[in-house]
What we know:
The complex is a heterodimer.
Chain A: H1 13-32, H2 37-56, H3 60-64, H4 66-83, E1 85-87, E2 90-96, E3 99-101, H5 103-120, H6 139-157, H7 162-178, H8 183-203, H9 206-216, H10 226-238, H11 250-253, H12 265-298, H13 302-326, H14 344-362
Antiparallel strand pairs in A: 1-2, 2-3
Chain B: H1 33-59, H2 61-72, E1 73-78, E2 85-86, E3 94-104, H3 113-127, H4 131-140, E4 148-154, H5 156-165, E5 172-182, H6 185-192, E6 195-197, H7 200-206, E7 216-218, H8 221-225, H9 227-231, E8 235-241, E9 247-254, E10 261-264, H10 268-284, E11 290-295, E12 302-308, H11 313-317, H12 322-330, H13 339-342, H14 352-362, E13 376-379, E14 382-385, H15 397-403, H16 406-416, H17 418-427, H18 449-456, H19 470-476, H20 487-498, E15 502-504, E16 509-513, E17 519-522, E18 527-530, H21 535-548, H22 556-562, E19 569-576, E20 586-594, E21 601-607, H23 613-616, H24 618-630, H25 632-636
Parallel strand pairs in B: 2-10
Antiparallel strand pairs in B: 1-8, 3-4, 3-5, 6-7, 8-9, 10-16, 11-12, 11-21, 13-14, 15-18, 16-17, 19-20, 20-21
Helix pairs in contact in B: 10-24, 14-16, 14-17, 14-21, 15-21, 16-19
Amino acid sequence: MSARPGLWQRLDGLQLLAALMLLALGLMTVYSANVDFGRQLLWVALGLIGFAVAAAFDYRRLRSVATALYCGCLLLLVAVALAGHSALGARRWLSVGGFPLEPSEVSKLLMVAVLAALLSRRRPATSAPGGRRWGLLPWPDFLVAGGLVAVPAALILAQPDLGTAIVFVGVLAGMLFLAGARRLQVAWALAASAVLLPLLPLLLRGYQRRRLQVFLDPSQDPLGAGYNLIQARIAVGSGGLFGQGWLHGVQGQLGFVPERATDFIFAVYAEQFGLLGCLLLLALFGVLILRLAWTVAVAPDGFGALLAAGVAAMFLIQLVENVGMNVGLLPIAGIPLPLVSYGGSAMITDLCALGLAQSVVLRRRSVQHRAPVRPADELVEPSTVRLPV
Amino acid sequence: MVGAGSGARGAQPLGVERQLWLGGREPRPRWSRRLSAFAAAALLSLGILGLRLAQLQLGEGTQLRQQAASNSLRHLVLPAERGIIYDRHGRPLVQNSPAWHLRVVPADLPRAPAERDGELHLLARLSSTPEQDLRRLLEAARDPFGPVTVRADLTSAQALAVNERLPELPGVSLQRVAVRTYGDPLVLSHVVGYLGRIDEDEYEQLKAEGYQPDESLGKAGVEAGLEPVLRGRDGWVEVEVDARGQVVRSLREVEPLAGSSVYLSIDAGFQDATAQALAAGLAARGLSAGAAVVVDPRSGELLALVSQPGYDVNLFARGISGADYRRLLEDPARPLLNRAISGQYPPGSTFKMITGAAGLETGAISADSVLGCPPYIRYGDWVYHNWASYSLGAMNVTRALAVSCDTFFYVVADQVGDQTLARYARAFGYGTAPQIEIPGAAPGIAPDRDWKLARCGSSNPRSDQCRWNPGDTITMGIGQSFLLTTPLIQAMYVSALANGGQLLQPTLVHEVRGPGGKVLRRAQKTVVGQVPVSPANLATLREGMRQSINPPYHMNYWFQQAGVPADGGGKTGTAQWGGDGQDTPTHAWFLYFAPFDQPEIAIAIFCEDGSLSEVTAAPIAVRIMRYYLDHRTEIRG
């Protein structure tokens, strides 16, 4: 290794590989679900472009435009509330140049950037969360973060889109935790959710409340609200160890699994590829999330670390909620499986998020000094540098 | 070892483009405790998901796989076409007309409540069915994946309307079914019968033979009696359906096997003429109920079998309404009762040939024995009257039959005894239900002292209900006492007199042909028994019947009037039933066979409450003979 490695050699290859494999599995499953495959290919292509652009983009510039990002986020959500298109009883889409845009998907990433900027302010520039000079989360930041998330989360809940609202709360919790929330703050957050959770049924629409009830007892209404749950469970279970084979899933191919290309794509995947395929998928997500955690660990500054932490939390919470509802562990809340489900907004957002994490990776410090360097040192004496063997 | 920020170089972090490659190794990642905890939590969640997947896919996999299959596989029954019932010359008596049933698979209805309600509302409007009825039927469905017939027999306008909108109505289908349409419902009702919806008990019994819970099956007449022949065998097809219930492909199929056709021994024209003759004869006397049975005494094949009043079987074919059914049940004329085979009545004087046979065979009398025919005889304290209030003079058995002398047969019966009389009655078919192909044939009664004792129910065998009285024997000689018979038994009885003493099994089925037209079964003469009467004695009895319709006797008038040769033998019967002893209502009977030498037709006429048999019953038989003689070649052809 004599030459300086090229820019792209500094990329987190493992993260990209896991993402690409998940994209491939996702495309196969979307193809098997008989939806608009060509369109999904287009989304993936646009997403990969977004990934490259985001990776090349210096993430640190986001920090200075955080206020604008937040305003933009709110604007989008208000726009969708006023002028959005409805489907399945929810107003979620904006038409942008003929393409449907789902602002709640985009707003997830915007919120991550805004929170990262907020939680890393007033910190030593190059300190990183968990480090000695980082310190604990100041109370004002804690409260502002909660307030910043509450507004868009409420707008999204009103669409209604319970799933994305849950992602918001999950991302907030993860980022607060990694940003050094105090124990008392954690206690406060738990207390707040304990108060709000019982109020949730009042806020939910009839069908959402019904979903919760049915989750508790699906046989209550096997052909109505419990149908999705039961059919998804049947699809997952009938996959067995090896699966029915690609394009041979009865439940998915014949349309018994509802929302088979989006919310319930995991069930369709599980039916075709079986337990082994599912474990592969989970392993790939595991690699992806661990690499994002690693990104947090190598980030050159607090903002980058929290950005990566937010992306990691976002992937984790979406994965758990989506797969959890597919296997009947969690109540149904419409949420796509990242990189796998059909849909443009989510695909592009998720790939951009990974690209931003790569942007952090690319800008990590690559030199490890053997000895503490005096702050005044501009360059390191070659003799003190230990060369790689 | 090296903490975060140990490599800090200054306030300005370096951009990638400005970074110098100095060799060395990567900075060690800063895995803080919180970050490690986060990673561990992520791995833990993945592990829980993996365990749950293993539980679903390995533990419950087999069971869920079966559920997946039952989701998408539907077993559809392909109903076999029911066999047609023809008359003996191939005239169809019933046809399968197409009709449409509206069916819904509850599982295939839209799952969103609003859409579901919308669909049911539309369906109710298109099919003109109350929406509550639809909901009730769908809620009561046992199997949500099986089709429920929510409306039988749509009108063609309704079927068209639904058919047009079918693409918007997931889960709804129109089933083409065949509904039986009967050609001459009132005349043939009691022969052909009708179909009805299978009931719970029948379904439990017949499930094994492949009957469906919403199937129809024969409930009366030939439809019921030949159900296994007519039904055929249903086929089925196993299809794969998608979530909307649309068939994707057929997997396995077994073709249905159509039912066999039944060619009745009945001649449709003759049946019609018989019904008309009976109706006219009854109407002339202000009556409405009666029966006529016409049989070929050589084979036992029934040429006509009429019970009146009839009822409209087509009402049943399309599912009779409660009101219509109640009306039929409550009609005092009891149209649903098949009097020809199920109605049991005392035979009256038509029984006298049996009394005569018993007397001749036991030696109580001979063909030449001459007895008086006084206006009454006295037995102990009891007086038994002849129908005439004056003496008809001395006579042998032949003349006693011709003039139907009651006192003659009182004496014979008294000499022969109840048990011998009953034995001869049984030999001529009394007391045993004829084995005919349609259900409901009644056995009649051939009573004797043992019979009375067995059925009396009193513990005291000396009581009047249990003890056989001499009077019971005496009145039995003229067909009263406890004797009961049916028009069908009478027809077989007169056939035995006509054909030389063979008691035959009556049959309504001339031929059974498979779906391809191949004859599977042909009517065969079945001899139930040979009556124990010598040819000479039979000839004596027949001679009495011949004389009774010839001059100088009045009955000949009907033959002359109709231009029918009085070639054959007849016997009237005016049977008392019930009443209070003063005003005694009577049924009218007439038995007839012809021609005398080689009889080919035997007729039993019964007129309920018909009073004088010579006036009521006999002309009906003559009218039937008129038609028979005019159309003999057609009927026999």
